[in-house]
Amino acid sequence: MNQRTVLVTGATGYIASHVCVLLLQRGFEVIGLDNLSNSTVDVLERVREIAGRPIPFMQADVRDTRTLSEVLAGRRVEAVLHFAGLKSVSESVAQPLSYFDNNVHGTVTLLQAMSLAQVKRLIFSSSATVYGQPEVVPIQESARVSVTNPYGRSKLFVEEILADLHRSDSTWSIGVLRYFNPVGAHSSGLIGEKPKGTPNNLMPYIAEVAVGLRPYVSVFGGDYPTADGTGVRDYIHVMDLAEAHVAALEHLLGGNPGFTLNVGTGRGYSVLEVIRAYERASGRPIPHKIVARRPGDVAECFADPTAAQELLGWSARLPLDRMCADQWRWQQHKESHQQEGSAPTPRGR
Ligand code: NAD
Ligand code: WQD
Fold first, then answer.
1. Can 224 be counted among the known catalytic residues?
2. Which residues form the NAD(P)-binding domain (predicted)?
């Protein structure tokens, strides 16, 4: 039995909870940490239900060096997977300091605690947002980075801090994963994304239209230079993303040097294609209206995932229809839970 222990920050969040399931299933010992600012602790019960093993959990903030040092000193942690952070582009424009504090300062305090404990393997959740307005698609890792908002800047600052750290001490091995558009949920329907308030992202918004919580999807722009005029993105199933983390972790634990890799499928879908796929998965019509472009959006953004395939032997497997089917199962599961309590109130946009 494999006894390798890893610390997962942001453990109760959307992506990390799916990664925790896979880590447990692959025999890792997982310690979870989260300040619960954007998630709830009950997700751990469902992670346990799926994986058959519990996760020791600490409610703590990554900016709390003392607690982090205690966690790292107390166990033989071999690597940290760092998901904790804030992720809304629009909120980051309104509250930039909060984003730099959580995402940049939070990462620096985590790195200080890791350094003290001599834990020097890290996987960091970066984002395709660091490519800003891409000059060419598919995007390779060597593409120019150019951020357009404080959230993106916080990710880029951290990437640069990590590069400086490695330059100063080459015993660090750091894997930076630049996620494209994570969607979907675990096939059990027990865990998934749970946005607070109005969803910012396309698929959770479509899901709320499908269940009648919102009247229609506003499609942001119908005049982009794409096949049907709507924006094109590289949607990736969250379980494929989880597989990429396990492959990245195995690579670092194997004594290999760090890396920066795109995590996408390499295939772009338009907003209308996603709406049609969700209609097929749910068997429900998704009313939608083309409205003005959303400021800051780009026409097309999709990955060249070749480097991850070559270095980690990882590539995405699950198609768009599966992303929608799993997201739909989770949406219904969430609904049935809510109906057991108070009924959801339909809201317009
Ligand atoms: P999420 O909000 O569901 O999960 C993040 C978790 O971190 C939450 O549970 C939150 O409570 C916790 N957290 C926030 N600040 C913290 C702090 N200071 N200390 C401790 N815990 C803290 O988001 P997610 O979608 O699972 O994203 C995980 C990571 O992946 C984030 O770093 C995000 O920026 C990055 N990312 C997400 C996407 C996406 O589309 N979801 C895309 C690219 C990158
Ligand atoms: C996808 C497409 C929209 C909502 C964001 C962040 C990025 C990363 C992933 C964290 C676009 C269109 C959307 C709606 C729509 N997150 N859309 N109606 O903007 O590609 O990326 O999430 O790192 O940093 O910027 O994702 O899901 O918001 O949009 O028409 O109600 O759907 O214009 O073409 P995006 P998204």
1. no
2. 7-326
The helix (H) or strand (E) run that includes residue 142 is none
- With cut-offs at 50, 70 and 90, classify the pLDDT of residue 347: very low
Tell me, what's the pLDDT at 198?
A: 94
Neighbours of 149 (CB within 10 A): 18
Q: Give the largest CA-CA distance in the chain.
A: 56
- The 10 Å CB-count burial string (b at 16+, else e) for 29-39 is bbbbbbbeebb
Give the tens place of pLDDT for each residue, 145-202. Answer: 999 999 999 999 999 999 999 999 999 999 999 999 999 999 999 999 999 899 999 9
pLDDT average, residue stretch 70-99: 95
DSSP string, 170-199: TT-EEEEEEE-EEE---TTSSS----SSS-
Beta bridge partners of 261: 177
Residue type, 118: Q
Provide the 3-class DSSP secondary structure of residue 327: helix
Inform me whether the pLDDT recorded for 341 exceeds 70. Answer: no
* Ligand 2 pocket test, candidate residues 139, 151, 294, 320, most atoms within 8 A of CB: 294
Q: Is the CB of 241 under 6 A from ligand 2?
A: no
Buried b (16+ CB within 10 A) or exposed e, 290-303: beebeeeebbbbbb
Give CA angle at 194 (18, 145), nearest 5°.
Answer: 70
Query: Which residue has the CA at smallest separation from atom 26 of ligand 2?
Result: 201
Is residue 62 a contact partner of residue 112, using CB atoms and an 8 Å limit? no
Say if ligand 2 is within 6 A of residue 231 CB.
yes
Judged on CB neighbours under 10 Å (0-12, 13-18, 19+), 342 is exposed
Tell me the average pLDDT across 4-22: 98
User: Mean pLDDT over residues 257-268, rounded?
Assistant: 98
Q: ∠114-250-78 over CA atoms, to 5°?
A: 25
